[in-house]
Amino acid sequence: MIIDLSGILKDVGGVIKVCGKAELDNTEFLGEEFVFPDGLTVDGKITNNTKSLHFTADVSGRMLVHCARCMEEIEKNVEFEISEFLVREEQAEQISDDDDAVVFAGEEIDIDELIVNNFLINVPGKYLCSEDCKGLCPKCGKNLNLGVCDCSDDEIDPRWAALAEIIKNSETE
Q1: How many alpha carbons fall within 13 Å on the CB side of residue 63?
Q2: What proportion of the chain, given as a percentage, has pLDDT over 90?
Q3: Phi/psi at 167 (nearest 5 deg)?
Q4: Confidence of residue 11 (pLDDT cuts 50, 70, 90)
């Protein structure tokens, strides 16, 4: 979503409304792919506050992601806020290293990258299809939410085999 800033660059206190859909590419993060089938709705503004522009917005929409336990595709709502300071390339030297600002060139800015970065800051570590998701069988990979698999429970993890042998011997004595 490209925003033309020419109307407020020289107008201190000037405001541009930013409303519309940001069509985002699939985004990969922490081994997960996030898909935004309808894009994300952006409702905000960019304000000229003399030394920089301040971009604030509410972002919402839906995404498709995989359950962290059973790997089924699920749909989740997305809602977060953006608050970013934007500085023209020519003025970037005037800001201190402590100021966190996005540098842009020219009179336009593409806010898609800002939206994705703010989404990634706000994304939880994992998503579940339900709190009681049973996940996948570690042996055969069957989705345990769909039923019990035919795998045997008799096998002991080799790391616990020595302990199982001690317990077995103490029971026979």
Answers
A1: 27
A2: 31
A3: -65, -40
A4: confident
- For the entire predicted model, the pTM comes to 0.73
CB atoms within 10 A of CB 104: 19
d(CA 130, CA 141): 18
The pLDDT of 9-18, averaged and rounded, is 83
Contacts (Cβ under 8 Å, ≥6 apart) of 144: 70, 134, 135, 136, 137
Residues 36 and 73: their CA atoms lie apart, in Å, by 13
Query: Strand, coil or helix: what is 58?
Result: strand
Residues 37 and 112 in one domain: yes
Following CA atoms 105, 106, 112, 117 in sequence, which dihedral angle do they give, to the nearest 10 degrees? Answer: 20
Query: Residue 98 falls within a domain, yes or no?
Result: yes
pLDDT of residue 152 exceeding 80? no
End-to-end CA, the chain: 75
- The answer on 110 and 30 residing in a single domain is yes
Residues 16, 3 contacting (CB under 8 angstroms): yes
Q: Domain range spanning residue 83?
A: 2-122
